[in-house]
């Protein structure tokens, strides 16, 4: 009973955190979180959020799918290169995750799904990745699907809403609301935890991955 109570509290916290993202009305950084929202690590392993098989295209134009992550622990997020507010700090934070895990000697794969796949073609994602010094041997920026496909994946697997609206200018024709979480997926393809992508606790994340590798 206590276990399910904890799961319930984690899910409530997730639903509060997940309704964020980029929109024309939200050009500035999000408001600071309350203590109730700022939990750095949230266990959803008992909810069985399974990542279904997928095969998309990475920043080099090559196929990349779930089979490439088989037996690996990975972190996922949702971003787009024209995002005016939350995506730059999220991607900068993912770069910090990359460096922290490398320094700690803890293997991790990183996957960033674009929620604006029509614009974010491989060359665009390649340029974006280079801007953040991404190690592309372990960090994969994905496109090669329709908007409806990635919105369905975000909703069905990661329980996060993705919606788009018309952008403010020809240079930014689309704005997308999307989750700002980093999701931890185990070797079996199950989402086990999520973190605040705007204020990630790097040491906690490393501990969580180390705990998974010991199972």
Give a written overview of the molecule:
- InterPro entries: SCO1/SenC, Thioredoxin-like_sf, Thioredoxin_domain.
- Pfam families: SCO1-SenC (PF02630).
- The chain is an alpha+beta fold.
- The chain has a single domain (2-20, 42-213), classed as Glutaredoxin (3-Layer(aba) Sandwich), CATH 3.40.30.10.
- 32% of the residues lie in helices and 24% in strands.
- Strands 1, 2, 5, 6, 7, 10 and 11 form a 7-stranded mixed beta sheet that branches. A two-stranded antiparallel ribbon has the order 3-4.
- The longest helix has 18 residues, at 87-104.
- It is globular and about 50 Å long.
- Mean pLDDT is 85; it is low at 2-19 and 23-40.
Task: Jot down its keywords.
single chain; alpha+beta; Glutaredoxin; seven-stranded mixed β-sheet; two-stranded antiparallel ribbon; 5 helices; disordered N terminus
Blueprint of the fold:
Elements: H1 2-18, E1 42-43, E2 49-50, E3 55-57, E4 63-65, E5 74-79, H2 87-104, E6 109-114, H3 122-131, E7 139-142, H4 147-158, E8 163-169, E9 172-177, E10 181-185, E11 190-196, H5 202-213
Parallel strand pairs: 5-6, 6-7
Antiparallel strand pairs: 1-11, 2-11, 3-4, 5-10, 8-9, 10-11
Helix pairs in contact: 2-5
Q: What's the pLDDT, averaged over the residues?
A: 85
Helix residue percentage = 25-40%
Report the CATH superfamily.
Glutaredoxin
CATH class: Alpha Beta
Query: Given the helix and strand composition, which structural class is it?
Result: alpha+beta
The percentage of residues in β strands lies in 15-25%
The second-level CATH architecture is 3-Layer(aba) Sandwich
Unreliable residue runs: 2-19, 23-40
The sequence of SSEs as H and E is HEEEEEHEHEHEEEEH
């Amino acid at each position: 009973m206590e276990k399910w109570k904890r799961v319930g509290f984690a899910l409530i916290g997730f639903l509060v955190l997940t309704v964020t993202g980029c929109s024309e009305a939200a050009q500035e950084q999000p408001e600071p979180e309350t203590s109730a929202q700022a939990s750095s690590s949230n266990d959803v392993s008992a909810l069985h959020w399974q990542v279904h098989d997928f095969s998309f295209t990475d920043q080099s134009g090559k196929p990349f799918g779930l089979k490439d992550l088989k037996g690996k622990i990975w972190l996922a997020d949702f971003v787009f290169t024209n995002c005016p507010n939350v995506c730059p700090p999220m991607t900068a934070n993912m770069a910090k995750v990359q460096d922290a895990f490398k320094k700690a000697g803890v293997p991790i794969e990183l996957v960033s799904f674009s929620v604006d796949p029509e614009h974010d073609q491989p060359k665009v994602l390649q340029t974006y990745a280079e801007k953040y010094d991404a190690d592309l041997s372990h960090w994969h920026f994905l496109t090669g699907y329709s908007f409806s496909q990635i919105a369905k994946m975000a909703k069905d697997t990661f329980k996060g809403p993705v919606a788009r609206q018309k952008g403010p200018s020809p240079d930014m024709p689309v704005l997308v609301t999307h989750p700002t979480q980093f999701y931890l997926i185990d070797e079996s393809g199950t989402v086990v935890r999520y973190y605040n992508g705007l204020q990630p606790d790097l040491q906690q994340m490393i501990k969580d991955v180390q705990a998974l590798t010991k199972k």
